[in-house]
From TrEMBL:
Residues 19-58 form the Insertion element IS150 protein InsJ-like helix-turn-helix domain. InterPro entries: Homeodomain-like_sf, InsJ-like_HTH, Winged_HTH_dom. It comes from Rhodococcus koreensis. Residues 89-145 form the Winged helix-turn helix domain. This is Transposase. It holds the Pfam family HTH_33.
Length: 146
């Protein structure tokens, strides 16, 4: 539950629920937080009003790449690895990191590169299908139609 208690905006959720005349325990259950957290929110609301329940804002370090830079990276990656001098048609984390560094000047390791691909770009890991070099698509289609 500790992770859920740290979500931003929950104080405002608690304020809305509390303004409907609900008990602290009901607020805790509805918002999936501990009773101690609901009690703390209630005490803050009594002492400081609605302003006391406002979130503190973003926690943690700010991203090194802004949304405009991420958009440029997305466009470049969608062009494919061959457009960036890679012989194969496969992106690796190292290759993506090189493109990011070339476009933005920001250096990332594999873990951070994967986080950008997954969270900021919404991409998932995909592996290319392994196919024989000798594969004859026409012969396969003819065989299936028999």
């Amino acid at each position: 539950m500790a992770g859920k208690e740290a979500r931003s905006g929950e104080g405002s959720d608690a304020r809305k629920v509390k303004q409907r005349g609900r008990r602290q325990v009901d607020v805790a259950v509805e918002l999936e937080v501990s009773q101690q957290t609901a009690s703390r929110w209630h005490r803050q609301w009594i002492e400081g009003g609605n302003e006391a329940l406002e979130g503190a804002g973003r926690a943690g370090r700010r991203p090194r790449l802004d949304d405009a830079q991420i958009a440029v990276i997305r466009e470049e990656l969608l062009k494919g690895p061959q457009d960036h001098g890679v012989a194969t048609g496969v992106w690796t984390l190292g290759r993506v990191a090189i493109v990011i560094e070339r476009l933005t000047g920001v250096t990332y390791g594999p873990t951070q590169t994967w986080t950008i691909l997954r969270t900021r770009l919404g991409w998932s890991r995909r592996r290319p299908a392994r196919r024989a070099v000798e594969r004859d698509e026409d012969a396969i289609v003819a065989w299936r139609e028999r």
